[in-house]
Design a protein that fits this description.
binds magnesium ion; binds adenosine-5'-triphosphate; 13 strands; Rossmann fold; alpha/beta; 19 helices; Arc Repressor Mutant, subunit A; five-stranded parallel sheet
Length: about 425
C-alpha cells in the first residue's frame, strides 16, 4: 500500500482512498496513478506510459489520451497542473510524481463481500514468504493478463496484474465480444450476465470491459448497493459522474443539450460544469421522471457518437425500481447508437415479484436483450485455475485434490479462491501434490 498526503493507494483492493473513503477513479487513470506513484520522483516517459497502459499497439492519439487520463487523476487528487502537489508535467517528455510516498503494509481487513484469496495472498507476498507461499506470491507478481488480450500479444495494463489469470468462459466471452463489436458498428446491444453469487459475473463483465477498452470504447462502471442506505439511481449516477469527469465542459453542454437541467437532478455538479442552466420546469412526478429518462438516454446516445461507450451495470438484483425502468427506457431508445450495456445480476435473488423480473420480462418480449448464464467451472477449468496459481502441473494426487475441491465448490470461483486462501492461511498450502 502506498500512502501520500491523506491518500492511500491500495494494491490489494485496487483502489484510491482519501481519509479512508474510496475516491472513484476509472481503471486506466488508476493504472497510470499506480505507475507514477510507484516510480515516484522519476520521470516516466510518454512512450513508456503508452506501452504500459494501452499496450504495444498504443492508442491512436497517445499525447491527447495521456493528457486526458492525467486530468482525471488530477481531478481525483484535487491537484492543479499549474501548481502541482503530486503530478508534474515534464514538457515534451512525460510525467513525474512528486511528494512524499510511503510504502506501508496493507490494511488487514478486506472489504466486506470482497475477500478473494488472491488479495489475501498478494498482501502476504509483501511479507517474508513461508514454505510454499513463494510460488503463489510469484504467480501474482508475474505478468498475467486479461487473457482475451493475450491473443493480441498485448502487454497487460498494470491493473490486470491485481487479478489472477482469467480461466475458461470462451463462449460467454465470444458472445460479449460479438455484442461489443456490433455496438462499435452502430448496433447497440444489451447483454445480461446472470448467475449465483461468486460465479464470476463481475469478472466476466470486467474482461469484456478490457476488450471494449482495447477496441477504443469508453468503459463506465455503475454499481447498485444493498440495503436502505443505497441511494436511488446509484449505478447511473456513478456512470454519469465518471463520464463527466473525463469530458470538457463545452462537450458536456452539447452532449446533454436540453436534458442538462433534468440530469443535474441526479448529478448536481453538472450545474457547476454548465453554468446558467435554467431550472427544469415543474411537472407531476410521472412527467418529471419521463423527462429525466429522456434526458439521460439522449445524453448517453449522443455521448456515444463521439466515442463508443460500454456501460457495466453491476449487481442489478439490488437496483431500485426507478433505475430498472431507466435501464429499460435506455434499452428501447439506444437502437442504432454505439452504446453497449452489460448488466449483471444474481438470478437466485429474483422471484416473480422482484422489479428486475418484470423488466427482464418486458425486454425479453421486445427482444431487446441477450442473456449469458454463468455456471460453475468444469473440472479441467478448475485444474487450470489451480495450475495457474501454483505454476505447476497437477497430476496424480493433485488431480484428485482438484476433484475434491470441485465437489465442494461446484466450480464456483469465489469458493475455490476461499479454499485456497484457507489453505494458505492455515499454512497447509501450497504443495497441492501432497494434498490429495
Ligand atoms: N473465469 C475466471 N477465471 C479466474 N478467476 C475468476 C473467474 N471468474 C471469477 N473469478 C474470480 O472469482 C471471484 C468471484 O468472481 P466475481 O466477483 O466476478 O463473482 P460475481 O458473480 O460477480 O459475485 P457476486 O454475485 O457476489 O457479485 C473473483 O475474485 C474473480 O476474480
Ligand atoms: Mg459481482
Amino acid at each position: 500500500m502506498l500512502r501520500f498526503a491523506d491518500f492511500e493507494l491500495d494494491r490489494g483492493a485496487y483502489e484510491l482512498r482519501r481519509g479512508g473513503q474510496v475516491v472513484h477513479l476509472e481503471r486506466i487513470p488508476l493504472d497510470l496513478l499506480f505507475l507514477l506513484a510507484e516510480r515516484r520522483s522519476q520521470l516516466v516517459a510518454r512512450d513508456e506510459i503508452v506501452e504500459r497502459i494501452w499496450g504495444k499497439g498504443g492508442s491512436q492519439d497517445s499525447d491527447a489520451s495521456i493528457e486526458a487520463e492525467v486530468r482525471k487523476i488530477r481531478r481525483a487528487l484535487g491537484d492543479d497542473a499549474n501548481a502541482p502537489r503530486f503530478i508534474v508535467t515534464v514538457p515534451a517528455k512525460g510525467y513525474r510524481f512528486m511528494g512524499d510516498v510511503r510504502e506501508e503494509p496493507p490494511a488487514t481487513n478486506p472489504r466486506p463481500g470482497q475477500t478473494p484469496a488472491v488479495e489475501a495472498i498478494r498482501d502476504r507476498s509483501e511479507q517474508p514468504a513461508r514454505h510454499g507461499e513463494a510460488r503463489l506470491a510469484g504467480e501474482l507478481d508475474a505478468p498475467s493478463t486479461v487473457s482475451q488480450l493475450e491473443d493480441d500479444g498485448r502487454q497487460p495494463v498494470a491493473g490486470d496484474l491485481a487479478q489472477g489469470r482469467f480461466i475458461g468462459r470462451a463462449e460467454e466471452m465470444a458472445a460479449l465480444r460479438a455484442a461489443i463489436d456490433a455496438a462499435l458498428g452502430g448496433q447497440a446491444s444489451l447483454v445480461m450476465v446472470a448467475g449465483e453469487p461468486g460465479i464470476g459475473k463481475t469478472r466476466l463483465a470486467e474482461e469484456a470491459g478490457a476488450y471494449a477498452r482495447h477496441r477504443g470504447a469508453h468503459v463506465l462502471v455503475g454499481r447498485c448497493y444493498e440495503g436502505e442506505s443505497a441511494s436511488p439511481y446509484s449505478a447511473f449516477v456513478e456512470v454519469i459522474r465518471e463520464y463527466i469527469s473525463s469530458r470538457p465542459d463545452d462537450a458536456l453542454k452539447t452532449e446533454m443539450g436540453d436534458g442538462a437541467s433534468d440530469i443535474a437532478k441526479l448529478v448536481p455538479e453538472i450545474r457547476e460544469r454548465i453554468p446558467d442552466l435554467p431550472p427544469s420546469p415543474p411537472a407531476d412526478p410521472n412527467g418529471e421522471r419521463l423527462r429525466l429518462f429522456n434526458g439521460v438516454a439522449s445524453f448517453l446516445v449522443n455521448a456515444s457518437k463521439a466515442n463508443p461507450i460500454m456501460l457495466h451495470l453491476d449487481d442489478l438484483h439490488w437496483a431500485d425500481k426507478p433505475s430498472l425502468l431507466l435501464l429499460q427506457h435506455l434499452a428501447r431508445r439506444m437502437k442504432g447508437s454505439r452504446l453497449m450495456l452489460v448488466g449483471a445480476y444474481r438470478d437466485v435473488e429474483l422471484d416473480r415479484r422482484h422489479p428486475l423480473s418484470a423488466v427482464l420480462g418486458e425486454l425479453r418480449r421486445e427482444r431487446l436483450y441477450q442473456r449469458v448464464l454463468l455456471r460453475g467451472l468444469t473440472e479441467s477449468e478448475v485444474k487450470e485455475l489451480f495450475e495457474a496459481i501454483l505454476q505447476q502441473k497437477l497430476e496424480g494426487p493433485g488431480a484428485a485434490f482438484v476433484r475434491a475441491v470441485l465437489r465442494e465448490t461446484e466450480g464456483n470461483p469465489f469458493f475455490i479462491e476461499e479454499v485456497l486462501r484457507h489453505l494458505v492461511e492455515s499454512g497447509h498450502c501450497i504443495d497441492a501434490r501432497a494434498a490429495g
